[in-house]
């Protein structure tokens, strides 16, 4: 087994390899003066089972191209099998044609990975489960729900309720609520047919006097969390937490969320969080052990699904 990491995931690759008890694979990755990316594998990988860890972090396009070039280099070095470990899948939200003349970029990424020589994909908490169907190669779709469940169980919250920030996230929230043995609610949103702007209008479910956990797969600018938090307090919630797998935190997310009435915003490190985006109520849970155990099981031919039972 060999585990290589792209430049966007060096700390996460170290964490994964620490769990597995191995050293990260050695590769030289840099840019020429003409801005072209170059990758050279610095160790023998002939007939090896190779895992390449690379997440979707700014600059996203550069990280994706670097991954494809690294996979090509490994393929040409006669690696037996190459698994792309994508903690946060590139272009995950471009999963359907919801307007005229637009691409389905998540499908394009799937085609690029297969063409480059990827034999298998491991990823975490896709926005839409059906993205797995974009691939003609096996996909192991992991979830960070057990990590969040352990964290919130240890906090022994008073009367927790899991809240989906929109109707589309209800199924995901239901699965998480089962781990906490808690009820489910969701924020109802309506879209203005003229402007396309969405507005949180009401909360479906009982949150009065309860500790609400807003549960979603990612937090980007944080505007949806802010609106949902205000609405939950207006409906009588005692306190509000947020749990989101991918901490994208773009734009003014840090400034807005740090001032919000959220007890904590709990995320994982599928996307690296720079120091200037962190604040005192942002809790980052490590995803490395989950990815490390999944890699071990893929290599050994063991069940992945039993990790989440």
Write the layout of secondary structure elements.
Blueprint lengths: L1 E4 L4 H11 L6 E5 L5 E5 L7 E5 L6 H17 L4 E6 L18 H12 L3 E5 L14 E4 L2 H11 L4 E5 L5 H11 L3 E8 L6 E7 L6 E9 L3 H12 L4 E9 L5 H6 L6 E4 L13 E4 L2 H13 L9
Parallel strand pairs: 1-4, 4-5, 5-6, 6-7, 8-9, 8-11, 11-12, 12-13, 13-14
Antiparallel strand pairs: 2-3, 9-10
Helix pairs in contact: 1-8, 4-5
In short:
The protein is an alpha/beta fold. Helices cover 30% and strands 26% of the residues.
Q: Which short descriptors sum up this protein?
A:
309 residues, alpha/beta, Rossmann fold, 2 domains, seven-stranded mixed sheet, five-stranded parallel sheet, 14 strands, 30% helix, globular
How would you explain this protein's 3D organization?
The structure is a single chain. This protein is an alpha/beta fold and 309 residues long. It folds into two domains: 2-142 and 289-308, Rossmann fold (3-Layer(aba) Sandwich); 145-286, Rossmann fold (3-Layer(aba) Sandwich). Helices cover 30% and strands 26% of the residues. It is built from eight helices and 14 strands. The chain has helices at 10-20, 60-76, 105-116, 145-155, 170-180, 223-234, 253-258, 288-300; strands spanning 2-5, 27-31, 37-41, 49-53, 81-86, 120-124, 139-142, 160-164, 184-191, 198-204, 211-219, 239-247, 265-268, 282-285. A seven-stranded mixed β-sheet has the order 10-9-8-11-12-13-14, with helices on both faces. Helix 1 crosses helix 8 (288-300). The protein starts with a strand and ends in a 9-residue tail after the last helix.
